[in-house]
Amino acid sequence: MEKFWVETRTDAQGRAVVVPHGELDLATQRQLREAIQELLMAGQVDLVVDLDHTTFLDSTALGTLIGARRRAHALKGSLALRCHRTQLLNVLRVTALDRVFTILEDE
Prior knowledge:
By secondary structure, this protein is of the alpha/beta class. Helices cover 36% and strands 29% of the residues.
């Protein structure tokens, strides 16, 4: 089993960036949810989830991202996704989540 971890940092625009490394699925989505929740509770309401180090994304992970977006918006914030991985972009397109999330492909 591939090791999974979540890194957090701040980008040049002052947004909190959450970077999941490895497979994001039922077994690991809780770590992502908790990292995002900690940032939101600390007042970081403009977030980016950088999926460039994510090797797999399942439906539970998608649900986690949708829930995190809702929580950020409830706090008058935002949650965007950064993604350059074709496989993951295809998942977002097939599920129509590319219409729900702002996808930062050019950053």
